[in-house]
Specification:
single chain, 181 residues, alpha/beta, Leucine Aminopeptidase, subunit E, domain 1, 5 helices
Length: 181
């Protein structure tokens, strides 16, 4: 299992920990289409960053599943929160929705000239997507985006909550890197 790779000057890292402690330019929130922030990653972001993040997000919504919107970051040590909409009000998601939301979040990064961003494992909490499926969807989209776009990104960190998630993402990252070699 590997936890880091590089592609076209962009470092992709896997990290076990709390995404709200990231000190880059932005973090991604796994959002629903109305952008209210309940539990899991969204709840942790709201708790540490403040209610103003949710208020700003909800003033933008609702948005289409697969889109990503940007808000301020309140008291967090980043400039922005990018809300990647991976599910509707039914809290169900799919690999397709995760792929679209990942791409959309990366596009918002380039619009804002973001260099360092952290993602959670999109859709694995309330959306109940297995870690392996999420890892494949997110990592393939990240690699595809870096290969196809002239990006401002220099670092993409995926924060994972537990050892099982880290192992799943590490296995998938290793497989993708081996295919590219």
């Amino acid at each position: 299992m590997i936890t880091e790779a590089e592609l076209k000057g962009v470092t992709i890292k896997l990290y076990k920990g709390d995404i709200t402690t990231y000190d880059g330019d932005a973090i991604v929130n796994a959002a629903n289409n109305h952008l209210w922030m309940g539990s899991g990653v969204a709840g942790a972001i709201k708790k540490k960053g403040g209610d103003e993040i949710e208020k700003e997000a909800m003033s933008i919504g609702p948005v289409k599943v697969g889109e990503a919107v940007v808000t301020g970051a309140g008291k967090l040590d980043v400039d922005y929160v990018i809300h990647a909409v991976v599910m509707g009000q039914d809290l169900k998601t799919s690999e397709k929705m995760i792929r679209e939301a990942t791409q959309s979040a990366l596009m918002r990064c380039d619009e804002l000239k973001i260099e360092r961003i952290a993602f959670p494992a999109l859709g694995t909490g309330a959306g109940s997507i297995p870690y392996d499926a999420c890892a494949l969807a997110m990592l393939e989209e990240i690699f595809y985006y870096i290969e196809e776009e002239d990006t401002s990104l220099k670092e993409i960190v995926i924060y994972l909550y537990d050892d099982d998630a880290l192992r799943s993402f590490g296995r998938v990252l290793e497989q993708i890197v081996a295919k590219k070699a």
